[in-house]
Amino acid sequence: MVEKLETLIENKYNTALQNGSLIFFETETETKSEDGIEVQRDFLQFFQITYAPSLLLKPNSEDVKNEAGSANPFENPNPELHVKDLKDHRLLLNKFCVVPHHLLVVTKEFKKQTEPLLPSDLRATWEVLSQLPQPSMAFYNCGDLSGASQPHKHIQIIPLSKAKISPPISAVYEHIPGRKAGEIYTIKSLPYIHVLVPLDLNFMGSTTDMDMVEDYLGQMFFGLLDSMIQQLRENDSKVTFSFNFILTHQYMMMVPRQKEHWEVAEKGIKLSVNSMAFAGLLLAKTAEELETLKQTNIIDLLCEVGVRRGEGVGSSVPDDA
């Protein structure tokens, strides 16, 4: 009998945690409301700020990038963190996690994190994501300004049911009236450039032909990429290939980046921002970072590291109003 993926992940996680191969960081969570993301009928979106001071012990992305000749942890991964092999990818446990069962889908051969996802990457990600309970979320930090921590191509998957939270952006998605699978949307209440597409749940839930799933996911992804580039051009913004990508059981979302870090110079704060922030989930490692985020308009923060949308940009695609 084939072991369920969820059971396999749990068993590997528990063993790795007990033998010290994996480090779980205790956290506290704050909820922050923002008037700037009000959707409909007084619906108010909430951002989740996770406070994890123990993460200061983890090497940051700058340390990883600056360590000349440092070992690639994905080239020959620790067997204790290896969950299973996929066709062209490996499924690994993340060594440093603030959410239990944090997963990585990593290419077996070295591919650059600066490259867009390929249909085969999306297929491997969906093979894992579709077997996890909802809500779960996959994300990819593409490019030098995206908040990526490793140069080896990897997609991260967070089973948010374990953290007992849902990605806040999903609540905004649920309030798009009359949304249609395959239509690309821009949400008016989000003032930074972004594109979002609902997935065809009937097709995804009924087919067992993974070649067809791979082709479909590739079409949706590259349709989003084309639409994002179009919005950047309409906005007279520099087209870079740094972006954040989010995949859930229901939709894909893509956000271009112009800065990796959000900084408050007078406080000496410099936060690396990745896809999780655009899902509404932020991370603070110090008490000062936590208090600063609580006092900050998060929408402005996202506009600063993303690309603020000008008047009329995105008007060629449907929106939430």
Briefly, what is this?
The active site is at residue 154. The protein is of the alpha+beta class and 321 residues long.
Explain the overall architecture.
With 321 residues, this protein is an alpha+beta fold. Helices cover 28% and strands 21% of the residues. The chain has a single domain, classed as ATP adenylyltransferase (HIT family, subunit A, 2-Layer Sandwich). It has nine helices and 15 strands. The strands form four sheets. Strands 4-5-7-9-8-11-12-10 form an eight-stranded antiparallel beta sheet. A three-stranded mixed beta sheet has the order 2-3-15. A two-stranded parallel sheet has the order 1-6. The longest helix has 25 residues.
Task: Give a topology summary.
Elements: H1 5-19, E1 23-24, E2 28-33, E3 46-51, H2 61-66, E4 82-85, E5 89-93, E6 96-97, E7 103-107, H3 119-129, E8 137-142, E9 154-158, H4 168-174, E10 195-198, H5 201-206, H6 210-234, E11 243-247, E12 251-256, E13 261-264, E14 269-272, H7 275-278, E15 281-284, H8 287-294, H9 298-305
Parallel strand pairs: 1-6, 3-15
Antiparallel strand pairs: 2-3, 4-5, 5-7, 7-9, 8-9, 8-11, 10-12, 11-12, 13-14
Helix pairs in contact: 3-6
CATH topology: HIT family, subunit A
Spatial ordering of strands, largest sheet: 4-5-7-9-8-11-12-10
In whole angstroms, the N-to-C terminal distance is 49 Å
Could you spell the SSE succession in H and E letters? HEEEHEEEEHEEHEHHEEEEHEHH
- Mean pLDDT figure: 88
CATH class group: Alpha Beta
- Our count of domains comes out at 1
C-alpha-based Rg, rounded: 19 Å
* Unreliable residue stretches: 36-45, 64-69
CATH superfamily: ATP adenylyltransferase
The CATH architecture category equals 2-Layer Sandwich
Query: Based on DSSP secondary structure assignment, what is the total number of beta strands?
Result: 15
Characterize the main sheet: 8 strands, antiparallel
**Outline type:** globular
Structural class: alpha+beta
Q: Which percent range describes the beta-strand content?
A: 15-25%
Helix content: 25-40%
Count the DSSP helices.
9
